Amino acid sequence: MNSDSMTLYKLIILFILDKVDFPLTNAQMSNFILERGYTNYFTIQQAIKELDASSLLKGETIRNSSYFVITDNGRETLEFFNKEIGDTIKAEIIEYLKENKYELREEVSTLSEYFEAKKGEYIAHCYVQERGSKIMEVSLNVTSEEEAASICNNWKDKSQEIYAYLMSNLL
């Protein structure tokens, strides 16, 4: 692979992140690129790592997922090299995001993690965020790692129901 190809993959990643107003996971970006057959998984990971190291994107890891947003430096770089991305690729990205924006946003807006607070005590921290603001946040103290993991695993499917329950009972 030549450096021009790697530059294109990095620009594609920056372009994707620039077109959404919420973080995307490593998997979400990788899936799009792999589905289109632009390159392989390992090259995508290298591109993401290099973009992160050069502060063109910013990553955060929650549980087993890495979430990324484009930085101001990333936007400036994209503006400068925008013409290097072909119109066909840009159109494919825009169409993909238009078709999948709701699902992509939903996937990254419901987050959970757990940690050991002290011996025999775990905290399951679950929240729903919208446009960078937490609209609901719950921390539960449980006695085992299994319980904390179970709460976190069920959060994505149950958060809307829990939110509706809380709102109807508190208002």
Radius of gyration: 19 Å
What fraction strand? Answer: 25-35%
Q: How many beta-strand runs?
A: 6
Order of helices and strands: HEHHEEHHEEEH
Largest sheet, spatial ordering of strands: 1-3-2
Structural class: alpha+beta
The backbone outline, from C-alpha atoms, is: elongated
Number of domains: 2
Mean pLDDT, to the nearest integer, reads 89
CATH architecture descriptor name of the largest domain? Orthogonal Bundle
User: Number of helical segments?
Assistant: 6
Biggest sheet details: 3 strands, antiparallel
CATH overall fold name of the largest domain: Arc Repressor Mutant, subunit A
End-to-end distance: 59 Å
Q: Which blocks of ≥5 consecutive residues have pLDDT under 50?
A: none
